[in-house]
Amino acid sequence: TDAEVSTRKKTFAEVQTERLDQAERTVLIKCPSKLNEKKLLQYLASHGTVKSHFFFENRGISALIEFSEKSSIASLQDAVGIPGASEHHVVPFKSRLFTFTLKNPVSQHAEETPLHLSPQCHIPVKDLIEKLCLADSISSQMYILLNEYQLTEENIKLRFLACSLVRDFARAYFPDSTVKPFGSSVNTFGKLGSDVDMFLDFRDTGKHATKMKKGPFEMEYQMKRLPSERLATQRILSVIGDCLDNFGPGCVNVQKILNARCPLVKFSHQPTGFQCDLSVSNSIAIRSSELLYIYGCLDSRVRALVFTVRCWARVHGLTNSAPGTWITNFSLTMMVMFFLQRRSPPIIPTLDQLKELAGEKDKHIIGGYDCSFVSDLRKIKPTKNTETLDVLLGEFFEYFGNFDFRRNSINLRKGKEVNKPESSPLYIWNPFEQDLNISKNVNQPQLEKFIAMARESAWILQKEDKTQQMINKEPWGLAALLIPFGKNSSKMKNRMKGIGSETIRSLLDSLRLNNASSQQKAVGK
Prior knowledge:
It is globular and about 70 Å long. It has 525 residues and is an alpha+beta fold. The chain is 44% helix and 13% strand. The strands form 4 sheets. A 5-stranded mixed sheet has the order 5-6-9-8-7, with helices on both faces. A 4-stranded mixed sheet has the order 2-3-1-4, sandwiched between helices. It has a two-stranded antiparallel sheet with strand order 10-11. A hairpin with a 3-residue loop joins β2 and β3. Among the domains are: 3-118 and 152-203 and 228-283, Beta Polymerase, domain 2; 128-134 and 300-348 and 383-461, Poly(a)-polymerase, middle domain (Orthogonal Bundle), CATH 1.10.1410. One of its GO terms (molecular function) is poly(A) RNA polymerase activity. Residues 391-426 form the PAP-associated domain. Its cofactor is Mn(2+); Mg(2+).
């Protein structure tokens, strides 16, 4: 759609600023199950123009309300009461979370109209497979999957609101601070139901630094000095974590994980339904989010292929939400990007090419690493590659099923297979911190399992007789790849012929490993 194209062309920073601004004009209201939408909107309109709203299901019905003016919120807050302290005593923190009740529910029952609820999670895989079987090509199947799994406009608004509500706490101590989402919430590759990664940013305070440059004297704040930045981060997060825990409406299961490589506070935000991770500004993580945002906006095939490969990997137990020795979604996404850089002609540019297009404003040196790349999408020439997703999916499995992982590593800066700098089974260069391997956690059995599954999938796609399968009402194309392969094992033996005995042995080992780990998980629950 035209609207989508015009939103697509905005820079990452523009989209972020717009969304954060939108979130500041937004409130969240818990509604009764029997609700008259018109009455609620009429009441809210007395405080100002409602620019947009939607309802969603989350332990009952909630409404997200975006006003045109920020002042409407203050007006609403003035009119809102404090809950009576009959059985509970309340912490009198006034937020932008409200509960709307009808004083005489019976009389209004007649006017009730059914509400449209925006889904906040994706459909189960078995329902997805049924939908996929109705499509007419693998390409359409992949776009169906993308549409079912990607973040909706409503879900993105809810994510930014969660950040904005945390920011209200941070501002009690640090009036200039902002809280921004990063990672999958903003890089165009987020899946419905994924966590919200957010960070506390004090960099807007840097704007004041330039003010005192002129003139014969200097003035600066007296601030508490600590021996390391890490300690400052830990202390700030510790206090904000306590605040959320003690005063935050609907903030539950607050865990402070301050000794991690990147200290963070984990909590569950019940009003929006998100699991949240809060850390302190991490500039490199933002650059990674923006890089993926650019790749995701350049060509619609990029996101369709990433979502498909990630769903495929999840079904076959190649990825897991628990940390461990399996491939992460981030590593998989980077493997897809690399594959698209290697096509002829390439579908997306290398990071070095994006760096060459960078203007003055795009220059970023962070901790000694050069993180510069162009931010204006219009400066990047569109690809001349016209391969369909049907072709690309098969070729992806073919490419990595036969990749020389022993010798080569994956380097997105150069878009080339480079000799491995060290012996990790899977080596994917961190695009910015050039001395780090983002897939250092992956062990040999997990990599071998990935290779075997990729070969198996390439095989299924090549051998397939689509018309026959459609006549027999059998899953075909992508649908056939999303069914665990052990389930149709009569054919499995033939398909294994092309795979070396070493890989089969390691595949069996890794299946045993995986079984053990899923049993462990079941025990651990």
